[in-house]
Amino acid sequence: xxxxxxxxxxxxxxxxxxxxxxxxxxxxxxxxxxxxxxxxxxxxxxxxxxxxxxxxxxxxxxxxxxxxxxxxxxxxxxxxxxxxxxxxxxxxxxxxxxxxxxxxxxxxxxxxxxxxxxxxxxxxxxxxxxxxxxxxxxxxxxxxxxxxxxxxxxxxxxxxxxxxxxxxxxxxxxxxxxxxxxxxxxxxxxxxxxxxxxxxxxxxxxxxxxxxxxxxxxxxxxxxxxxxxxxxxxxxxxxxxxxxxxxxxxxxxxxxxxxxxxxxxxxxxxxxxxxxx
Length: 277
What we know:
- This protein is of the alpha+beta class and about 280 residues long.
- It has 2 domains: about 15-110, Alpha-Beta Plaits (2-Layer Sandwich); about 120-260, Pseudouridine synthase I, catalytic domain, C-terminal subdomain (Alpha-Beta Plaits).
- It has 5 helices and 11 strands.
- It has helices at about 40-50, 85-95, 150-160, 215-225, 235-240; strands spanning about 15-25, 60, 70-75, 100-110, 120-130, 140-145, 165-170, 185-195, 200-205, 255-265, 270.
- Strands 1, 2, 3, 4, 5, 6, 7, 8, 9, 10 and 11 form an 11-stranded mixed sheet that branches.
- A hairpin with a 6-residue loop joins strand 8 and strand 9.
- It is globular, with a radius of gyration of 21 Å.
- It starts with 15 loop residues before the first strand and ends in a 6-residue tail after the last strand.
- It is an enzyme of class 5 (isomerase).
- Belongs to the tRNA pseudouridine synthase TruA family.
């Protein structure tokens, strides 16, 4: 005969949940919660609380700015209800605006914080070289007319190679970034024309971590060299001087996408299950 459970013994709390979230950032004041402003975190937390009202907070991997987009933002939280990963993905879909989608969910230890488990991030910046605007790309690219010839793209690609490796990127952060440690490692930074639409130029950036506006300032510097507003070698000069004024402009948020965040723990029982590659 089974013995009755001890009275007063609480059931263990369910695992934490890790989400992969995609969003079009045009209508939002960034990822992080801001009082009286529409944010990604605010909309996502409201959708999660519709399924489990006890959820107190969500923990994101990147505080993307207003207007910045994401394919692979990572967000963790601690529920009190036992809901499988599939339930979190499909359940939040009923409560999120069209601009935000939970693309994947998995189970992780409670208290898991994606920012502290970060193994590297990948960003993409899209440039449009066109004399007139494209309504289907409005708010999703930075239109730069002066990138029309191959020589300008070659200048940007050559300048990008100067940022590879581990450097002090103090010149490539906004004045609002208070961090004292400004050494970062960039593993990949390439400039390439899209094969399917030659009007589009992709800048792919991968690194261990990034400071506020770092990617946008890097892109602005490459573009300023490409259109000959800065002399070649601007990246090297800014790295050496550590002065913001030696780098290029800050590219607008429109063309920036957080593509993916690699984590030390990707969780278990993920849904949907990604096919092996």
